[in-house]
Amino acid sequence: MLEPRHQTSVEALTETEAAEELARLAQEIAHHDAAYHTHDAPEISDAAYDALRRRNAAIEAQFPALIRSDSPSSRIGAAPEGGFAKIRHRVPMLSLDNAFGSTEFAEFCTRAKRFLGRTEPLVFVAEPKIDGLSINLTFEHGRFVRGATRGDGAEGEDVTANLQTMKSVPDKLHGPAPALIEIRGEVFMTKADFLALNQSQAEAGAKVFANPRNAAAGSLRQLDVRITASRPLSLFAYAQGESSEPVATTHWEYLERLKNWGFDVNPLSRRLTNETDAEAFQNQIGQERSSLGYDIDGVVYKIDDLALQRRLGFVGRAPRWAIAWKFPAEQATTTLREIRIQVGRTGALTPVAELEPVNVGGVLVARATLHNEDEIARKDIRVGDTVVLQRAGDVIPQIVSVITDRRPPDSIPYVFPDTCPTCGSNAVRPPGEVVRRCTGGLICPAQRVERLIHFVSRPAFDIDGLGDKTIQEFYNEGWLHGPADLFKLPEREAEIAAREGWGKLSARNLSRAIAARRTVPLERFIFALGIRRIGSTNAKLLARHYGTFANWRTQMVAATQVGSDERLELGSISGIGPTIAEELTDFFGEDRNIAALDELAAEVTVEDAARADAADSPIAGKTVVFTGTLETMTRPEAKARAESLGAKVTDSVSKKTDIVIVGADAGSKARKAVELGVRTVTEAEWRELVG
Ligand code: IVH
After folding, report:
1. In terms of domains, do 230 and 370 share one?
2. Is the C-beta atom of 94 inside 6 A of ligand 1?
C-alpha cells in the first residue's frame, strides 16, 4: 500500500476496529519485512512502511490491552531464508525509532532526560543514516572470525566469507584490542557503483536492483563469494555488540577507536555538545544530501555518554538513547510523456508513468508508479503534465502532485482503458475493488508470461538463468505455453545455444539449472502456481496442512463443491479463511488449470511437506482446535507448538476434529465439541500431552 488509505483517527476507533486493524497491520508489516529483508525486493517505499509502523504504534499506545504477541513493534526485520548458516547474535541487533521533525526530536530528548532525571542538555554524536544493511563483525584476539547479517535481530546469516572479500573489513585490528569484540556497521553501495552495477547487470540480462540498498544486500548475500568479491561494497562502522572489556566511555571515543583499528567511520559524524545544535546539523546535512556519493535518509543522534546509554536501555525494538531523524523524501519536477498499462500475473492492470528522465537526489528516474485508476483520477494526472516526483530514498518513485499551472492548454483527462492492452479482453473492476483486471486469464499473453516469470522466481522454483527477458523471448518463440514447458527446454539445448547472446556453455548451464529443480518442496510448488492471494505464507500453511501433493490436489478438487466437508476444512485452516479458500476453489474450478497442473506434476517430483519432530508425537496427524483464553502461552505460541508436533490447527470444531483445548471462558466451540463427542482437554492436560 503506497498511499495512506483513508484512516479513522486512532481516538475514534472502537476496540473491535482497533483489534482488526492491528491484526491487519501485523500481517501487512510482516509481508513487507519479508519482501525487504528476505527477498531484497521491497514493494513499498520506506516512507509508506514507516507510516504503517507508526499507525501500528499509535493504535497500540491507545489500546495497550490489544497488543498482539506477534506485534510488529516487538519484531525487527525478517528471519533469514535458507542457504546461509544461522548465527544467533550474542547481543540482539536492534533498530531505531524515527523522528520526523524538530518537535519529535525534542520529544525524544525530553523523554530521555525525564528517564534519567536530568535537566542539563544532552551531548550527542550525530551520524548520517545510510540505508544499507547492518552487519555484526566478531573479532577474537584482534582477528576477524565471523560476520553476520542482522536477520530478524536475534538471528542472522553467516556471511563471514562474503565480508572477507571487502576491503573495508579488516582481517586484523590494528593495535591492541580486547580478547572478544563485536563491531557493527552498515554495508552499502555508493550511488555511482550502484548505477554502474545495474548497467552491467542490464547488459548481461541479469537482475537489475531497485536501489543501492537492495544492490548491497543482494551482493553481500551471495552463496558464491566470487560474486560478492566482484561487487563494490563499502562499510561504515558505527556501533558495538559484545565486548570482553570496555573500550571507551563515550560513543565519540568509541568512533576514534574504530578508526584506529582500521575501520571507516562516516567523516561527516559530529559531536554536538548541546541538543539544540541538532537542528542546524540536520539542515546542513540535508543540504549536502543530494551531492553525497551515497543515499542517506536521515541523521542518527546517539547520546554520547555510554554510561547514560546503559541506564537508558531499550524499549521494544529500539534503544532509548538514540533516534533517527529522517529527512523528507527527495523531490524533483519533470514531464509525464505517456501512461503505460502493465498487465500482471493475476491480470491486474497497473498504470505506469513514463517520464522525461530527471535526477532525483542523485538517481536518474524515468518511470513512476501510478498505482491504479482512482489514483490517476484523484490527482487528475494527464499525459503532458508537469509533475512533482518523489523518491523516498528508494524503490519506485511516486508522483506527488501535478503543477496545473503548467498544464498544456489542449490537455484532456486520462481515460483508463476498459480492455486489456495485451489481449483485448474486457478489463473489469468488481464493485468495492480498486484494481481493474483483464478477464483473459490464460489466453492473455501478458498474464502467461508474468506467471512464468513468477514460476521461476527465487521463492518459487528458483531456476537460475531464466530472466524476464529470456522468458518473454522463449514465449515469443512459442516454446512456453505453461510452466510444464519450462522442463522441456533442455530438449532445445542446441537451438538455445545457437541463439544470440547464448552459447554452448550457457545453454548447458540452463539445462542443468532446470534439472536441479525437478524436485521441489510442496510449499514452493503451491506458491509457484501463482494463484491469487497464495503467497509464500499461505502456500506453507496449505503444504503443512495437506502434507502431500496428491492429497492437496484431491482435497482442492473436492473443495470446489460448495458446502462440502473439504470446503469447510479448507476455510477453517488457521490463517486461510473464506476469501483465500475461494481463490483456491476458483482456480481448481477451471479445467484448464487442472490440466496445466497435471502436466506440470508429470514433469516434477513434489516433496511431501516436512513435519518437524512429528514422528513419535502423540498429536501427529491430529486436528486440534484451541478455544477460550490460554493462561500459560499465547495463541500463536500454542499453535506453533502444536504444528511443530505434526498437528493441524483449525479454527472451527467439526466431527473431523480430534482434540479441543478448552481455555478459560470458552464458549460455543467447547459446547459443540461436547455435542459432537470430540475429546476436550484443559490447558494443563494439553501441556502434559505435548510435553
Ligand atoms: S545504530 C541500537 N547508527 O539504521 C542501534 N544505525 O533504523 C543500532 N543505520 O539497523 C543502530 N546508519 O541498519 C546506527 N549511524 C548509524 C546508522 C544506522 C544506518 C541503520 C542500521 C539500523 C537501522 C535502524
Report:
1. no
2. yes
376, 385 contact by CB (below 8 A): no
Phi/psi of residue 466, each to 5°? -115, 80
What's the CATH number where 292 sits?
Answer: 3.30.470.30
Distances (CA, A) of 405 to 370, 375, 408: 21, 20, 9
pLDDT computed for residue 5 by the predictor:
45
Ligand 1 atom nearest to 133, measured from its CA: 13
Pocket test for ligand 1, best of 182, 184, 186, 294 (most atoms within 8 A of CB): 186
537 has pLDDT over 50: yes
Task: Indicate whether residue 186 lines ligand 1 (CB < 6 A).
Answer: yes
Helix locations, 262-305, DSSP H: 278-288
Distance between Cα 276 and ligand 1 center (Å): 22
Same domain, 546 and 659: no
Q: Is the CB of 300 under 6 A from ligand 1?
A: yes
CA separation (Å) from 268 to 13, 349, 411?
Answer: 44, 45, 47
* Pair (271, 387) in one structural domain: no
Q: If you measure from the C-alpha of residue 641 to the centroid of ligand 1, how many angstroms do you get, rounded to a whole number?
A: 34
Q: Which atom of ligand 1 is nearest to the CA of 318?
A: 2
Q: Are residues 286 and 175 in the same domain?
A: yes
- 116 CA to centre of ligand 1 in angstroms: 23
Distance CA 303, CA 121 (A): 11
Instruction: Tell whether 381 and 311 lie within a shared domain.
Output: no
Per-residue pLDDT reduced to its tens digit, 47-93: 778 788 888 888 887 887 777 767 777 665 554 445 788 899 999 99
Single-letter residue type at 1:
M
∠ CA 492-496-498, nearest 5°, is 125
Q: Has residue 430 been placed in a domain?
A: no
Looking at the structure, do residues 186 and 301 belong to the same domain, yes or no?
Answer: yes
Number of domains in the chain: 5
What pLDDT is recorded for position 2?
32
Lowest mean pLDDT among 55-59, 143-147, 584-588: 55-59
Last residue of a domain, one of 267, 291, 326: 326
Atom of ligand 1 nearest to the CA of 127: 15
Is 129 catalytic? The answer is yes
**Measured from the CB, is residue 324 less than 6 Å from ligand 1?**
yes
With respect to residue 381, please indicate whether it lies within any of the assigned structural domains.
Answer: yes
Q: Evaluate: CB of 238 within 6 angstroms of ligand 1.
A: yes
CATH number of 664's domain: 3.40.50.10190
Q: What is the pLDDT of residue 381?
A: 96
> Residue 625 Cα, ligand 1 centroid: separation in angstroms?
42
Residue 4 amino acid letter: P
The domain boundary, picked from 568, 595, 610, lies at 610
Residue 647 lies in a domain: yes
pLDDT at 465 over 60: yes
Instruction: Extract the C-alpha cell encoding 219.
Output: 551482493
Cα–ligand 1 centroid distance for 132 (angstroms): 9
With beta carbons less than 8 A apart as the criterion, state whether 382 and 412 touch. Answer: yes
Which domain does 140 fall in, by range?
A: 86-326
Q: Are 511 and 598 in a shared domain?
A: yes
Cα 146 to chain centroid, rounded? 26
Tell me if 195 CB under 6 Å of ligand 1.
no
Burial (Cβ within 10 Å: 0-12, 13-18, ≥19) of residue 602: exposed
pLDDT reported for residue 612: 42
Q: Is residue 421 part of a domain?
A: no
Please write the tens of the pLDDT for every residue from 384-438: 999 999 876 555 688 999 999 999 999 999 999 999 999 999 999 988 888 999 9
Q: What is the pLDDT of residue 453?
A: 93
Same domain, 189 and 158: yes
CA distance 48 to 68: 22
